[in-house]
Amino acid sequence: MRTSDVSAIPREPGVATVEKTLSILEIVAERGGATAKEVSLALGYPLPTVYRLMQALVSSDYLVHLKGQRRFELGYKLDRLGVSLHRQIGVPNPVRAEIGRLHDAAQTAGYFAVYRGADVVVAYVVDSPEHPRLTPLGFGFHEAAHATAFGKIMLAGMTPEQVNQYLEVHGMPRMTERTMTSRAQLDEHLAGVGHLGVAWEHEEFVPGMTCAAVGVRNGAGMVVGAVAISAPSEQISRVRERELERYLRDASNHVSRYYRSGQTRKPGAPAAA
Amino acid sequence: MRTSDVSAIPREPGVATVEKTLSILEIVAERGGATAKEVSLALGYPLPTVYRLMQALVSSDYLVHLKGQRRFELGYKLDRLGVSLHRQIGVPNPVRAEIGRLHDAAQTAGYFAVYRGADVVVAYVVDSPEHPRLTPLGFGFHEAAHATAFGKIMLAGMTPEQVNQYLEVHGMPRMTERTMTSRAQLDEHLAGVGHLGVAWEHEEFVPGMTCAAVGVRNGAGMVVGAVAISAPSEQISRVRERELERYLRDASNHVSRYYRSGQTRKPGAPAAA
DNA sequence: CGGCCTTTCTCACTCCGTGAGAGCGCCTCT
DNA sequence: AGAGGCGCTCTCACGGAGTGAGAAAGGCCG
């Protein structure tokens, strides 16, 4: 929902046309297809402009024009780009399988997170109707590292400068009443996490939900990722915590072994399978 | 690639900026990430322009800037758009399962195709290392209906005017030496396909590969999609043909039953014109 | 056949994107 | 460490590209 208030908003010196074009794409995506008029109304752009931009998108295969139904829908190039993105983030199949095993064994949603540039990003998730993922924690989630279990593991694996930089960009927004929002508190917590090798997060991100994570390390011993689980807090007893930690360490060991064994990154060709 | 000579190229009156922006996106996708300079060189756009456009893409989350590695890679919004596209094409789970069963039973790659606007598009594929898909036939493939088995089924399910329109847009390009390229020949063939209820395609699309398809019908008896398989021609004996037809009809029956039973989220009627 | 909606076209204006060039800052090589 | 190279950003004046009102063309409906 973009407000098209031209006067008030301090327009970044971006390329206005690009922004308009992309917002059209997103409107069509949100609504599952839209007519030009709907877009025009929703975004406040004049009709001819909308048509021109949409035609540009159609001719590049980012949209298709369903003439019969007088609607625009998303085009096929978006699938290819999505696939490319997944290939760039590149979670190897053995790792996927390991997260699947974690999900099965722990009977919780299972996650795998990696660094990407200065960010911490969810790269793979396995869940099921009985054990669903935390709603915002899908592929590509890269916010609020201070309030998630895998985020803490990954922050603990960064240099102090990197942590500073991360927090400068993202801040420490309060997600729930338990979220840590003071830097001192977080630093102390991260020291503990680094010491124990496991991070717990009790309702600091979503009320009623608990997460835990363990780091994945490469041959040099550096944290390169994290395996994590999430579960309703009510299901987490002392015994259950021990059990989950065991599953996490187990998964982490297997994944770490994979990353140590060579095939770390960019194996050139996305090997079959 | 010279950018200097504007007069020679018959520029469509598209929005040039949009085109440039999207081509940047695609370069980054192809190469699995790129620096601004690489993009500038590859596309022949001046560096500042590339930076400006890339920053616009970054600020909309279509790209990310990995400052550490001085590279741009694809952003997370592309995943969401890809997911939206899949939702718009919307192959219901029971249908997916049926194609999976087709793959298992027939021991071939399995396909499901639907109408989308005036197009015929591959909506779902199940394959495996032993039985891989035909290389260009991935999700979103929508060309050369005259040379594919599912394309023939879907053309046979369209009105003559719809077929005319389709062929006007796409033509009948020769794919192999067996491709039908005359309209009369195709019409005759389609009549046979409509009569038999199954379409075969012997090396008309890719040399050495054979495909077959059977239509999926809704409650009104209209073709709304097609189930298909592909296999190396050398594996196709007379007996095997019979067997594959049986599997296809079986899959088609199950899928058709699903579409008759109500739950058709979209009335995938062949809407054209 | 006549209304209504979608889509395309035209055209003059002006605003927006453009791109050379300079300058800054980080990484690397010696 | 210093020097050099490279990646990245900013500025600014020019010019053409995008813009958007308006109207006309094309379809579908009753």
Tell me about this structure.
2 copies of one chain form a homodimer. The first copy, chain A, starts with 15 loop residues before the first helix and ends in a 13-residue tail after the last helix. By secondary structure, the first copy, chain A, is α+β, with helices and mostly antiparallel strands. Chain A is elongated, with a radius of gyration of 22 Å. Chain A is 44% helix and 18% strand. Chain A has helices at 16-31, 36-43, 47-59, 77-89, 93-106, 149-156, 160-170, 183-196, 238-260, and strands at residues 63-66, 71-74, 109-116, 119-126, 198-202, 209-217, 223-232. The first copy, chain A, contains 9 helices and 7 strands, in the order H-H-H-E-E-H-H-E-E-H-H-H-E-E-E-H. The longest helix of chain A has 23 residues, at 238-260. Chain B binds a DNA duplex (30 and 30 nucleotides) through helix 3.
* Portion of residues within helices of chain A: 40-55%
Tell me, what is the CATH class of the largest domain in chain A?
Alpha Beta
Element-level helix/strand string of chain A:
HHHEEHHEEHHHEEEH
Counted beta strands of chain A: 7
Strand order of the largest sheet of chain A: 4-3-7-6-5
Count of spatially separate domains of chain A: 2
| CATH fold annotation of the largest domain in chain A | Beta-Lactamase
Q: Kindly report the oligomeric state of this protein.
A: homodimer
The CATH homologous superfamily of the largest domain in chain A corresponds to GAF domain
Beginning-to-end CA distance, first to last residue of chain A: 40 Å
Question: How much strand of chain A?
Answer: 15-25%
Give the largest interface: A-B, 56 and 57 residues
Question: What is the CATH architecture descriptor of the largest domain in chain A?
Answer: 2-Layer Sandwich
Mean pLDDT of chain A: 88
The best one-word shape of chain A is elongated
Note poorly predicted spans of chain A.
Answer: 1-11, 264-273
Q: Supply Rg of chain A.
A: 22 Å
Structural class of chain A: alpha+beta
Largest sheet of chain A: 5 strands, antiparallel
**How many DSSP H or I helices of chain A?**
9
